[in-house]
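Risk register update: the risk that structure generation would not scale has been downgraded. Supporting records follow, first protein first.
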Amino acid sequence: MERKTLDVGAELTLHIVNVPGDLRLTGWEQAQITAKTNGVQLDLDVDGDSATLSCDNDLIVSVPRYA
């Protein structure tokens, strides 16, 4: 299982590029992205106001509501 949390800014565009399993996406009031997979690979990269996320299995993600 892999888990990652990153702080993000006031503006954010999220790109989910690869999830071969189930995806659960929820919004929350925190200025963070939290991602968890039951696989072994989880990539979460933030570059300015853009975030890219991919994994190799099911994925659970919480993102700011404004994303």
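Supporting record for the second protein:
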Amino acid sequence: MASKLTKESLEHSAQLEKILETQTIDLHNALDESHQVSEKLTLYTTLLDENPNPVIQVDEAGKITYKNLSGKMLLKHLVVQEGFLSEKNFTASYNDILHSQQEYRTEIECPNAVFSLIFIPLPKARCINIFGIEITAFAQARESLEQDGCEIKNLKHQLARSNSFPDQNPNPVIKIDRSGTILYINNSGRDMIKSLKIDNDILRQNVFGVDYDRILSGDQPQRHEFKSGEVSYLLVFSPIAEDKEINIYGMDISMQKNIELGLEFHNLRLQQSNSELEQFAYVASHDLQEPLRMVASYTQLLAKKYSDRLDEKAQKYINYAVDGAKRMQVLINDLLDYSRIGSRGKTFTEVDCQDVVDRALKIMNETVTECEAEISVGKMPEVIGDENQLVQVFQNLIGNALKYRSEKKPLVTISAQKKDLYWEFKVEDNGIGIAMQYHERIFTIFQRLHGRTEYSGSGIGLSIVKKIIERHNGRIRVESEEGKGAAFIFTLLSVRKR
């Protein structure tokens, strides 16, 4: 009996060992498969993470469950709230995409790129994989093609419209071939040539004074003025080289020509008037100098010779007369300078404004030293102008800045800034400033804001500056508040670089 049990135990043990061996092999196989799956999963994850295109996964509620590096960059430009990708970014809901079990495509515009997004629904996993690809270049090309298509459509529409009613065009329209034979002419065109003597509907070259062959050999329209009777026309000859034809488009410019003649006559009269006024100012000023000198000299001589016979009141009156005569001489000299700006100015040349400012500062050196002023000059450009007159401009503006200084140490800043075809100059100070209501008045001739006992001068300096700037086709203005200094800003034409 014991022998029988031992035999059964051995058989049972052998079976167990065999089962254990089989399970061990199965376990090893399972572990190998698990390891392979893990390796594949790691590989796939690496491929997704390093994919240069965005890859994002969301669940049915929109919660972001995965995003690669490119996906993170894309999400910065989308509406994301607490880890959920909002459906506001798209035109379809996540539930619709899952239930449809079909791909959903859309485009997203970011600040510097356009992306095409493909939504792949996974209904069993209740999630959606979103794959993106940048299509910026494609989108730009598509937009360009769409614009070209619209332009072509518009051109076709315009062509259809122009072809539908050419005869109603109020301006002359004529088509001719190389020989001048009229291929088409509208009613306005016939009215234009009705006074001309033409044979067999041929407009020969001498009719308009143009060379048809030369027009056809070029690729640009040519303009030519033509007079038929009392009417003046501007004609545009547009070549159609492939057909050896020329389209002629006309426009009645009689009114413009009359206006031009009127303006020429008006400008001529204005020039004559200005010349006469300048001559009158010069002659009047010159002729007044001698009598004033005589009044001043004889008054001073009278005071010197009869000083012992004159009382204090008489001496006072004589001083008034002499002072008045001297002030009148200053005013006359200033008026002479003002009248000569236009007539005595030099021809414009290229001027280095650094040299201009240096010359003005050299003239003002004594005053600058006396005031202990600080002058700051930025980089100065080259302009077109009259160098001597520009020196006068800077001299006047620097002089005013020092004359109307405050209790502070005088500080004058000169700078220039490019503005299109002009240079804008600024002469800025920290002086007493100018109240806003006087910003225009200060440029009027002989207008003073202060009494003669406070500040010397005739009140013509800024008028001269304004007239010089306007002669240079520039503009001048002031920016200032009382007690806060002043900035005089003016423009001069820049030198065109070759």
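Residues 1-5 have pLDDT under 50 and may be disordered. On this basis the risk owner (M.S.) recommends closing the item.
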